From TrEMBL:
<protein>
    <submittedName>
        <fullName>Mandelate racemase/muconate lactonizing protein</fullName>
    </submittedName>
</protein>
<dbReference type="InterPro" id="IPR013342">
    <property type="entry name" value="Mandelate_racemase_C"/>
</dbReference>
<dbReference type="Pfam" id="PF02746">
    <property type="entry name" value="MR_MLE_N"/>
</dbReference>
<dbReference type="InterPro" id="IPR034593">
    <property type="entry name" value="DgoD-like"/>
</dbReference>
<dbReference type="InterPro" id="IPR029065">
    <property type="entry name" value="Enolase_C-like"/>
</dbReference>
<keyword id="KW-0460">Magnesium</keyword>
<dbReference type="GO" id="GO:0006518">
    <property type="term" value="P:peptide metabolic process"/>
</dbReference>
<dbReference type="GO" id="GO:0016854">
    <property type="term" value="F:racemase and epimerase activity"/>
</dbReference>
<dbReference type="InterPro" id="IPR036849">
    <property type="entry name" value="Enolase-like_C_sf"/>
</dbReference>
<dbReference type="GO" id="GO:0000287">
    <property type="term" value="F:magnesium ion binding"/>
</dbReference>
<keyword id="KW-0479">Metal-binding</keyword>
<dbReference type="InterPro" id="IPR029017">
    <property type="entry name" value="Enolase-like_N"/>
</dbReference>
<dbReference type="Pfam" id="PF13378">
    <property type="entry name" value="MR_MLE_C"/>
</dbReference>
<dbReference type="InterPro" id="IPR013341">
    <property type="entry name" value="Mandelate_racemase_N_dom"/>
</dbReference>
<feature type="domain" description="Mandelate racemase/muconate lactonizing enzyme C-terminal">
    <location>
        <begin position="144"/>
        <end position="237"/>
    </location>
</feature>
<comment type="similarity">
    <text>Belongs to the mandelate racemase/muconate lactonizing enzyme family.</text>
</comment>
Amino acid sequence: MKIVAVDCFGYNLRYAHGEYVMSGNRAATSEIGTLVRLRTDEGLEGWGEVTPLGNRYLPTHWAEIRAALHTLARDLIGEDPTNLSAIRRTMDNTLLGGEFAKSPIDMACWDLLGKQAGLPVAALLGGVLQEDFPLYEAVPLASPEEMAEFVTRRGEAGIKRFQLKVGNDPHDDVRRTRATVEAAQEGTIIVADSNGGWNLRAAQIAVKEMEDLPVFIEQPCRDTDDCIFAMRHSTLPLVLDESILNNKDVFRAKYDAGAVSINIKISRVGGLTKAARMRDLMQELDMMISMEDTWGGDIVSAAVSHLAASTKPENFQNASFMNDWTDGHVAGYNPRSVGGRGSAPKEPGLGITVQTQGLEPIFSVS
C-alpha cells in the first residue's frame, strides 16, 4: 500500500456547555480543528485529527500545525502507511519536533493499518481488555455554586468522574473544590486540575487547604520540578499532565514526583503510537492512566476509545470522549457514550465513517 494523497481539512468545534474556562482567564466557546485524510493506491482512506485548546494551553497553534502538516505531506507521498516505524522516520527526517502535526498522520496510519488487516485498532494495540470504560468530564472554572450544579447535572447523566478547573486564587479554588465534593454522588472521583496555573505559593496554599478532601491534584504548577516542590508535604495523590512529553518523563513522574497517574493526551505526546508506548510503560510501572486529547470530535474520540479499550482495567482511571464536549460530529457522533461510559467501535481501523460535507478544504498534496 502506498500513500497517493494527503488532504487537510478544517472545521470549528463549539463547546457543548457554553464557555470552557481554565486558570489564567483561558476560555473558549469554540476551537479550530484540523483533519487529515491519507488516500492510498488501494482505495483505502485513513483519518486523523488534531485540535489544540487555544493558543496558551500548550506550545502550539492551529496555523502552526497546518504549516507543519503541509511540510510533512510532500515527503509522505509514496510511503507505506501501514509501516508505522518507517512513517515516523520519514516525518522525523523531514521535521524536527512538530509532534502535534505528526499526531493526526500517525492516527490516520493506524486507521489504515486496521482497515488493511480487517481489525479494529484496539486489537492491534494488544486486544480489548475493557468492553466499556468510565469517562470523565471537565467542570469549567466558575463560582462554587455553578461548578457544584454542573457536577450534579452531569452526575444525573451517569458521569462519575470529574476534573475541576482550578488554578486561580487558591482560597477560591478550595471553596470550588469543597462545593463540588459535597454535591457529587457517592463513589465519584474528583480531580482538582490547575493546568499549571498556580505559582508555587498558591499551589502550597491550595494543596494544604484541600488536605481533608477526597480529591486528586492535577498539574498544580507548570513544570514537574515545581509540582514536586508544591506537593512535598501533601498526602493527596498527584496526577501529571502537561509536563509529561515522553517516556523519560514518565519515570520522573513516578520516582521523583511521586505521581500516581498521568493524563496522556495523544497529540501532546506525538500520536497514537507514542501514546500506546507510554500507556504500556505506565502499566509496567503500575501507575494509573487517564487518556484523551487536547480537544476534538469524533475522530479523536475514536482514537481514545481504542487506546482505552486495550488498557488494563486495574490501571485505568478514566478517558474523555471529546465529541460529548463539542459538536465535532464529523462521523455521525460516533463513538457515542452511554451513561457515562464509552466503548471502542468494533469495525476495522478507527471504526468510524467520516463525512467531508461542511469541512473546509485547506490543502491537498499528491
